[in-house]
Amino acid sequence: MTTKRQTLLLVVLVTIMLAVATQLGNWAESINPDGIAPHPVAEGEKPVENLQQTSTEPRNAYWFGVSIGLLGTSLLYCCLAMGLLIQGRTSAEKSANKMVYWIGGLAALGFVLSYLVDDYFY
């Protein structure tokens, strides 16, 4: 079980993840209010037939920014969990702390939510 301090840290990490995601969503929408249009095919280039997203309608910029925010904070939390895991392995304790698993799980949740929000694999 986690202590009150660890629980507070997890709540802060979740709050940071949500704040970054919504702020990046707002930023992306303010930059591209009409949405994010796919790149046109240049002259002389052959279009790829098997792309997943073949529609020419623009994607919602807000949800794209939210997805990027979730992805970025998840990568940060993944690095944090790996750093804590390496620190635990090099110190006297040989088993990983439960907090490492909680932060790693939060990172994995962010990766999944990033895909589910924008339905686009980066």
Q: How would you describe the overall organization of this protein?
A:
The chain is mainly α and 122 residues long. The chain has three helices and no strands. It has helices at residues 4-31, 61-90, 98-118. α1 packs antiparallel against α2, α1 runs parallel beside α3 and α2 (61-90) packs antiparallel against α3 (98-118). The longest helix has 30 residues, at 61-90. The mean pLDDT is 84.
What is the number of E strands? Answer: 0
Question: Class by helix and strand content?
Answer: mainly alpha
Q: Output the radius of gyration.
A: 19 Å
Compute the number of helices.
3
N/C terminus separation:
35 Å
Range of helix content: 55-70%
Describe the structure using short key phrases.
0% strand, single chain, 122 residues, mainly alpha
List the helices and strands and how they pair.
Blueprint: H1 4-31, H2 61-90, H3 98-118
Summarize the structure.
The protein is an all-alpha fold and about 120 residues long. The protein has helices at about 5-30, 60-90, 100-120. The longest helix has 30 residues, at about 60-90.
